Amino acid sequence: MSNEGRPDRKPAAPPLAPDTRKHLGAHLQAVFAEIEGEPIPDDQIDLLLALRRVERDLGRKAS
What average pLDDT does the segment 55-62 reach? Predict the structure, then answer.
């Protein structure tokens, strides 16, 4: 990835060392495994249901 001809862009960061990537990957997997077991908060469920209703209503109008 070159930034030639694009002075407004920062140079690309150097790739991470394999051991660093492995460490970060293991840490991220542990964090997401912990979060995955948590219930979805009621306010977020309400928001998802509201979005579903809007999508359904828009689909009816388009038909």
Answer: 86
Separation of alpha carbons 12 and 45, rounded Å: 39
Sketch the domain layout of the chain as residue ranges: 18-62
24, 16 contact by CB (below 8 A): yes
Q: How far apart are the first and last CA of the chain?
A: 44
> Are residues 34 and 43 in contact, defined by beta-carbon separation less than 8 angstroms?
no
Rounded distance between C-alpha atoms, residue 11 and residue 4, angstroms: 9
Q: How do residues 29-52 score in pLDDT, each as one tens digit?
A: 999 998 988 999 999 999 999 999
| Cβ-proximal residues to 10 (8 Å cutoff; 6+ apart), any chain | 3
Q: List the one residue out of 59, 57, 55 whose CA is nearest residue 47.
A: 55
